Amino acid sequence: xxxxxxxxxxxxxxxxxxxxxxxxxxxxxxxxxxxxxxxxxxxxxxxxxxxxxxxxxxxxxxxxxxxxxxxxxxxxxxxxxxxxxxxxxxxxxxxxxxxxxxxxxxxxxxxxxxxxxxxxxxxxxxxxxxxxxxxxxxxxxxxxxxxxxxxxxxxxxxxxxxxxxxxxxxxxxxxxxxxxxxxxxxxxxxxxxxxxxxxxxxxxxxxxxxxxxxxxxxxxxxxxxxxxxxxxxxxxxxxxxxxxxxxxxxxxxxxxxxxxxxxxxxxxxxxxxxxxxxxxxxxxxxxxxxxxxxxxxxxxxxxxxxxxxxxxxxxxxxxxxxxxxxx
Length: 327
Ligand code: SF4
Prior knowledge:
This protein is of the alpha+beta class. It has a 5-stranded mixed sheet. Strands 1-2 form a two-stranded antiparallel sheet. A two-stranded antiparallel sheet has the order 4-7.
């Protein structure tokens, strides 16, 4: 979407604070995850489960849809108490979206009515391809960094349908559109969606025993479920091609470009959801985006990293796509 935003996040190590909409997604995800844990208890005849992120134990039979939505809301509210005004109408939205997802078409996609394989699945997989190696000198520390590309992420809910069929359910609480282009996501566009392709690739490596992997992307407030089938024969090579293209584009970028200079893109992307275009730098009073971009023009990337870098910033996966901000 914007190379400069990527550089601010993953090279200079600035971090955006989660916005209201991302937090709403996290709350609904948490609620649905708790219901999936309840389902696993039912499958295994257990009365209790432990929520892995916070380590609290819950009685499965008390984890109703309402209790799960309340917990999701309270958990993230507490985490970011000072950053947002968490009104009761926000709580109601969490309840509404959770209920709507669970009740859709008689509970067709409800974790409570599925055979759950994993309420969440984390992955961290090295890419064993000749192009996936890197070797460079870190301008910030002066150290040589050598390694191999690895992909990391968390998929939402894995269920088993028929024998041989693994179905991955991905919850989305935002609009059904591509934020980089503004286009509505159709079936055809979803087949080329890089996140879905990447997750399919990861699941095909983690679950070789399943012959078929279906992906359902469920837009909780914008159209409901879209189910796709990716095939190992055709889509693993496509996923690797996509990774290679992106990896090489990142590796070869000497001076990241920003989309701010295009007035249309600035209106559509920068002001709507990038905090670097809104937050002011305390000394210069310019936006963080502009402040550091002007320094980039003066210093170049290497010296900018020496001046403002954070040790290990580019090696951190953090929470994006992990245990929070998954939407
Ligand atoms: S404000 Fe716009 S140009 Fe600046 S980093 Fe964010 S998306 Fe990129």
